[in-house]
Every structure is written in structure tokens, then in C-alpha cells.
Amino acid sequence: MPRTPAREKLLDAAGRLILGSGWQRLRVSHVAVEAGVSRQSAYNEFGSKEALGEALVMREFERHLDGLTEQLLDRREDVGLAVEEAVLYTFRSASANPVLKAVLTSARTGLVMGELAEVVRNREVPPLPQAITAVTALVARHRPDLDPFSVRLAIDMVLRVTVSYLVTPEGSHEDAAARIALMATRVLGLPVR
Questions:
Q1: Which residues of 2-33 are buried (b: 16+ CB within 10 A; e: fewer)?
Q2: Domains recognised in the chain with CATH numbers
Q3: How do residues 75-128 score in pLDDT, each as one tens digit?
Q4: Of 110, 15, 129, 120, whose CA–CA distance to 58 is shortest?
Q5: Which residues bind DNA (predicted)?
Q6: Which of 42, 69, 115, 160 is most buried by a 10 A CB count?
Q7: C-alpha angle 179/185/187, rounded to 5°?
Q8: Cα gap 26→83, rounded to integer Å
Q9: Alpha-carbon distance values, 42 to 5, 54, 94 (Å)
Q10: How many other C-beta atoms can be found within 10 angstroms of the C-beta atom of residue 149?
């Protein structure tokens, strides 16, 4: 669905309310009031609370995926550095955007958006497999010299381990990103820098 100013206002309002009160307490009517639109306009835009929640999660996930893609493309010649910067980007984004952090970690930590994450997991294509597929295709286009199976395996591992570090941090973000990059380069059979 196209991003209209009204839709963005509603999604922003939903994010604020979910962070404040949790998904279970969220009502589309509350979102409408917070966004300054009529309840009917909110329902016309999304149809249901679940559709609103899915749209919010997917917007945050797609924004993050766009930024992640930029990090990878800017450094595509040095895979280790590209992975390290992409992981650091994820850590910084999650720190700066509580909705994104909740989306990335809620299934494991029971944060206020845990029930919302369940709504998204029930989608035909959940966000994590969607991200793995998108990043795999990106790498295949820009680094055809790498083995496709190893690329998919490395991307799956990088994304899952990054989420694990978000849930249970250990050491600095820089150290974690360097370790994840090292794992990825080894899976890909590339020289370690």
C-alpha cells in the first residue's frame, strides 16, 4: 500500500502507543486520536488492529532493510567489513528506534510487542526469511563470485546471531560485529583480514 501522510501519521502514533502501553492495550480508536484523524479514517486505512500492527512492523523492518542494504553495497568489495558495518548499523538502529528493537527481539524477550510479533510471524512470508531472501539476492547480484549456498548460509547466520546479540549483549557492539563478520567470512571461505 502506498505511503501517504495520513498512513505514516497513524503508524507513528501506533508505534508511540505500543511502546507506552503494549500491543494488547492498543485500540485503533486510540491510534486515531493520537494521530489526529477520525476513527473511521484509521479503519479505512488499515481495516483492523492486526493489519495496523503488521503494517507498522513491516514499515520498520523495510526501513531497516533499506539501511542495511546501503551498508552492504557501500563496502561490497570487502565482505568482512560490509558485514561488520551492517551489524553495527543494526545495533545503532535498534538502540535509536525502540519499535525496531522490539520488532527484532520481542519473540525472544517478551517485550511489549511480543503479541504483535506473533501477528507478523503468521504472515505468509515473515520478516526474517524475507530479509534473508532479499539480502541473498542482493549479494548474488553484486558478488557473483561467491558460492550461492554459502552466501545464504552466511546471511542466515549473520541475521540470527545479530538478533541474539541484541537480546543478550556481550561485550561492545564493535567486538560483537567483528566476531559476526569473522564467522561470515569463514562460512564464505574468504581470507580473514
A1: eeeeebebbbbbbbebbbeeebeebebebbbe
A2: 56-187 (1.10.357)
A3: 888 999 999 999 999 999 988 887 787 777 765 444 445 566 566 556 555 677
A4: 120
A5: 27-46
A6: 42
A7: 105
A8: 37
A9: 12, 14, 27
A10: 8
